[in-house]
Amino acid sequence: MVMKKKTTKKSKTESKIINAVFSGKNATSNSTEAKNLYAKSRFGEPVDEKIQYSLVEALYLIEKKKMEIKEKSKKISARKFKEKIEDIDKKINTNYIVFKDMRQRGYLVKTALKFGAEFRVYEKGVKPGQDHAKWILYPVHESDPLTWHEFSGKNRVAHSTKKNLLIAIVDDEGDVTYYEVKWTKP
After folding, report:
1. Which of 1, 102, 110, 131 has its CA 20 to 30 A from that of 54?
2. Helix, strand, or coil here: 45?
3. Is 35 a catalytic residue?
4. Catalytic residue from among 40, 75, 132, 162
5. Is 132 a catalytic residue?
């Protein structure tokens, strides 16, 4: 008996890796692959005919082997990139765990710095521009203090932007527990 090996061909856009440039604040790419991934999954943001990635998005794509990153025309490893961004953002490890968890659950996660939060989260199937984010998300490590004053401020930001507050508590094992806070009328 002769068995034939069945092979499937990947489309050109699936098999190509995004080549991005690290600027110290973010990563950018003007490649077709970057634009295709943005159209499909909303990774990055279009800025001046390029796709600009937050540090956490770039780290996620590098880990998923969908992106390679260069700094000053020299390719840098995923480990070196992570070291560099740890110097920039002291909360990157906690933020990354939450970002990765939310993406793996099927949610679209974008930065929310203009809202005074780490992330804004869209319901499954909703893309930015189609509707507004449902949640403002604050990742917190279980060992980090969160005062009632800080909690109240975060809740006010969520309420003033017409979003629900989502607190993500990351434990020492990297597990995430989410708490949703909503305003109710008496």
Report:
1. 131
2. strand
3. no
4. 132
5. yes
Catalytic residue among 35, 50, 100, 163: 163
pLDDT single digits (tens) 141-153: 999 998 999 998 8
Q: Give domain status of residue 5, yes or no.
A: no
96 in the same domain as 84: no
Domain-located, residue 186: no
Mean pLDDT of the region 121-145: 90
- CA distances (Å), 41 to each of 19, 21, 124, 147, 170, in order? 17, 20, 11, 36, 25
User: At 151, which CATH number?
Assistant: 3.40.1350.10
pLDDT for res 15: 53
Unique residue bearing structure tokens 């279980």: 142
Known active-site residue 122: yes
Query: What is the spatial distance between Cα 5 and Cα 36, in angstroms, rounded to a whole number?
Result: 30
Last-in-domain residue among 67, 88, 109: 88
